[in-house]
Design brief:
7% of the residues lie in helices and 48% in strands.
Length: 371
């Protein structure tokens, strides 16, 4: 009996080793799971600057025109702007940022966050191009239509609205699928045999000359992710607002955490930091469970789905009436975080309520000087 048990244990051990070896072989040595992970946050909050090229996944290899990184735009922390600065004459306008890719497997995911301003109604267009092709896979046109490869319209878009765009490429099935803000938009066959480059281009329609270009439109681009679709990708963004005071000295803050990633954020933890002179009155949430932990308030949630949002109403009371104080909220979860510079925010009460976004959302930055 003992000999039989030992043999069975050895057999099980061999099966485990074979399973681990198969997993290692399927992933392949040296094959990157994340090909591009660019949020333009290095260096962080240093004013407006031109991005640097390089070989790392966070750095572009293609720069055309004069794309600039700015401290904040809309809900973005330090995005890249593509616009019509007319610095590319004498003929046709174009600005572009792109990423060269190593060998990609049979599947790839391309996702990015996008905000357009004054693009609708202009003669300009924002395009996503793959490899070295001149024809765009996806175009955000000046007439407010999103065009698929070949020119067919698949949906509409509005200026000044955050768009989380995701393209999934299945090379084996020759299929390309589009989702915007988590919703399926379009799926069609593709003739791509490989994925070697991803390029984001802002240009005029039909190569218009500078004297016919509208200099006002621009595109804010952030959180570019290109991978083989194997890792969960989340982007937690927190904000604090709606501070209101009651007669008994209680101040309420509305804390919001949103997942702008492609996958669910699992084991979400939202920690509220309270200063020493502030006591917790209550922490209320429909989606999250909250409890005090020393000087902190910890709110947890098993899962926050892609493009979903959870809200916590934090009621606190300052020990010294009238003395200013600030609260800070930080969100984390398991999985790959695309951009961890916007998951922390603070708000100050007293002496005039003002939002202090430590993530770089200081004020609405003046987009560019177009003169």
């Amino acid at each position: 009996m003992l000999r039989s048990s030992s043999a069975f244990a050895i057999f099980c051990f061999i099966l485990v080793l074979q399973s681990l070896s198969a997993q290692a072989a399927s992933s392949g040595p040296g094959v990157p799971r994340q090909l591009v992970l660019a949020n333009f946050n290095a260096p962080l909050l240093t004013g407006e600057f031109r991005p640097s090229t390089g070989s790392l996944p966070a750095a572009p290899q293609i720069l055309v025109g004069n794309p600039r990184v700015v401290p904040a735009m809309g809900g973005f922390t330090q995005p890249l702007l593509l616009n019509t600065e007319l610095a590319n004459g004498p003929c046709c306008y174009s600005e572009e940022v792109g990423f060269r890719l190593p060998d990609v497997g049979q599947q790839a995911r391309i996702s990015f966050d996008l905000l357009t301003a004054r693009l609708v109604g202009s003669r300009n267009r924002f395009r996503l191009l793959l490899n070295d092709a001149d024809e765009a896979v996806l175009t955000f046109n000046g007439d407010g239509l999103v065009l698929w490869s070949g020119g067919g319209a698949v949906t509409r878009f509005d200026d000044d609205r955050l768009l989380h765009v995701q393209l999934t490429l299945d090379l084996r099935r020759q299929l390309l699928t589009l989702r915007i803000n988590g919703e399926p938009v379009h799926s069609a066959n593709t003739s791509l045999e490989s994925l070697r480059a991803v390029r984001f281009n802002m240009a005029s329609e039909d190569g218009l000359t500078p004297d016919r270009i509208d200099p006002e439109p621009f595109v804010a681009l952030d959180n570019i992710l290109v991978d083989e679709g194997k890792d969960p990708a989340v982007n937690l963004q927190t904000s604090i607002g709606g501070a209101s005071s009651s007669g008994d000295g209680v101040v309420e803050f509305e804390v919001r955490v949103r997942n702008l990633g492609d996958d669910s954020a699992r084991e979400l933890a939202l920690t509220h930091l309270l200063p020493e002179n502030v006591e917790l009155v209550s922490a209320r949430s429909v989606q999250m469970e909250c409890q005090p932990v020393r000087r902190h308030v910890l709110c947890t949630q098993d899962e926050l789905a892609a493009m979903d949002q959870s809200t916590v109403t934090l009621a606190v009371r300052g020990e010294n009436t009238g003395k200013p104080f600030a609260v800070t909220s930080i969100a984390v979860s398991t999985g790959t975080e695309i951009d961890n510079s916007d998951n922390r925010s603070s708000a100050r009460q007293g002496g005039g309520i003002e939002l202090l976004l430590l993530t770089g959302l200081l004020m609405l930055w003046v987009a560019r000087n177009y003169s």
